[in-house]
């Protein structure tokens, strides 16, 4: 396969420092890069901060703060948009308690059969899911996804 792994996924943010506090101080991701973009590839002057937070596998979640470019932040429903990050079950429990203690919107623990999840809302309104694999993970993940997709399409198209 040509694609090796996720390098980063990028999202807009309202305030880079508030975003840093959530992703670095609360979640424990390391801020590994930040740079200002002063000009677009088309030569338009701008002022955008691009920041990157690293996970254990060296992939990142990144954010753009662009005060001069309007963007409507909408609290997302979990089905619409969420960011899911993997932890072990012990850390899932610790982060659930930490979220409650720190007065961060915290939901869960949801048992999805193959994974257990908790959910937070970051300062930008994005839903962040922490998920831990359950004992049945391998059995479930090896199910026939193409068959399930085919049946869904036949039922819903």
Blueprint of the fold:
Layout: E1 8-12, H1 16-26, E2 30-39, E3 45-54, E4 60-65, E5 82-86, H2 89-101, E6 106-111, E7 115-121, E8 127-133, H3 137-141, H4 145-156
Parallel strand pairs: 1-4, 5-8
Antiparallel strand pairs: 2-3, 3-4, 6-7, 7-8
Taken from the alpha-carbon principal axes, the silhouette is globular
Mean pLDDT: 91
CATH topology of the largest domain: 2,3-Dihydroxybiphenyl 1,2-Dioxygenase, domain 1
Main beta sheet, described?
Answer: 4 strands, mixed
| Through-space gap between termini | 31 Å
Count of individual beta strands: 8
- What would you report as the Rg, rounded to the nearest angstrom? 18 Å
CATH class type of the largest domain = Alpha Beta
CATH level-four homologous superfamily name of the largest domain: 2,3-Dihydroxybiphenyl 1,2-Dioxygenase, domain 1
Indicate the structural class: alpha/beta
Helix content: 25-40%
Describe this structure in words.
The structure is a single chain. Helix content is 26%, strand content 36%. The chain has helices spanning 16-26, 89-101, 137-141, 145-156, and strands at residues 8-12, 30-39, 45-54, 60-65, 82-86, 106-111, 115-121, 127-133. It has four helices and eight strands; from the N terminus they run βαββββαβββαα. The strands form two sheets. The protein has a four-stranded mixed β-sheet with strand order 1-4-3-2. It has a four-stranded mixed β-sheet with strand order 5-8-7-6, covered by helices on one side. With 157 residues, it is an alpha/beta fold. It has two domains: 1-69, 2,3-Dihydroxybiphenyl 1,2-Dioxygenase, domain 1 (Roll); 74-157, 2,3-Dihydroxybiphenyl 1,2-Dioxygenase, domain 1, CATH 3.10.180. A hairpin with a 5-residue loop joins β3 and β4. The radius of gyration is 18 Å and the shape is globular.
């Amino acid at each position: 396969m040509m694609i090796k792994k996720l390098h980063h996924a990028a999202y807009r943010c309202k305030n880079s420092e508030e975003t840093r506090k959530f992703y670095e101080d609360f979640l424990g991701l390391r801020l590994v890069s930040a740079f200002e973009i002063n000009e677009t590839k088309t030569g338009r002057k701008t002022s955008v901060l691009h920041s990157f937070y690293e996970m254990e596998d060296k992939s990142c979640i990144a954010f753009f703060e662009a005060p001069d470019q309007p963007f409507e932040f909408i609290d997302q429903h979990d089905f619409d948009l969420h960011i899911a990050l993997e932890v072990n079950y012990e850390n899932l429990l610790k982060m659930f308690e930490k979220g409650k203690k720190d007065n961060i919107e915290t939901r869960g623990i949801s048992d999805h059969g193959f994974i257990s999840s908790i959910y937070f809302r970051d300062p930008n309104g994005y839903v962040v899911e922490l998920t831990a694999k359950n004992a049945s993970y391998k059995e479930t993940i090896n199910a026939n996804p193409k068959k399930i997709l085919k049946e869904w399409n036949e039922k819903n198209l």
